[in-house]
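Exam revision sheet. Question 4 asks you to relate a sequence to its structure. Input first:
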Amino acid sequence: MSDSRRNRRKEERDLKKVKPNPEKERKDRRTKIYGILALVLFFIIALIAIFFKAIWEFRAKYGF
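Answer key, structure tokens:
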């Protein structure tokens, strides 16, 4: 294979490589953070609901 053909094929292979997209990485990171925040918020609301239900039953049982 001649040098010019070898260089051309090398350049074609380099062009096929996927370049990292910082905008997409930033968006993916933001999506992960929002997902984690949504889960945390869900569990906090669930704990508050359980707490209020326990207070409600306690008041109904003992009449406070």
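Marking note for examiners. The chain has one domain: 3-62.
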